[in-house]
Amino acid sequence: MESEKKVVSEAEELPRTIVRRVVKEKLSNCSEEGDLSVHKDALLAFSESARIFIHYLSATANDICRESKRQTMNADDVLKALEEIEFPDFLNPLKASLDEFRRKNAGKKAGAAKEKEEKKKRKLEEPSHDSGGGERVENEEDQDGTGDA
Fold it and tell me: Euclidean distance between the first and final Cα of the chain, in Å?
């Protein structure tokens, strides 16, 4: 009986804490009254609306991708889908967020590539453990300088 009540699988649900945080943040920016409370039913309505919007947007972007004879959806497909479903007001904020994400990600990639190159360089500079291992032990034992082991 409980499974009948739950129409949406847990895998499709948006995290409640994130939905609550986003709603409260946006409402606090719009209201001068301070901290607003949001009823549980309202949060559920926000969550369901967002989930349905994501499904609709992703289906439209998928259609655009397939029309281009590609199998991998990209950000441009999502931007075109927003235009197609008549949400042009979302384009500029989304493009700004996307540019910022790409800029930050490019910095991370450059840092990771540099670190990988430095690791490779260090590995090449290290003496191999196979050659000279015996001499190294002898030198360590001959610390008194007498030449005797």
Answer: 83
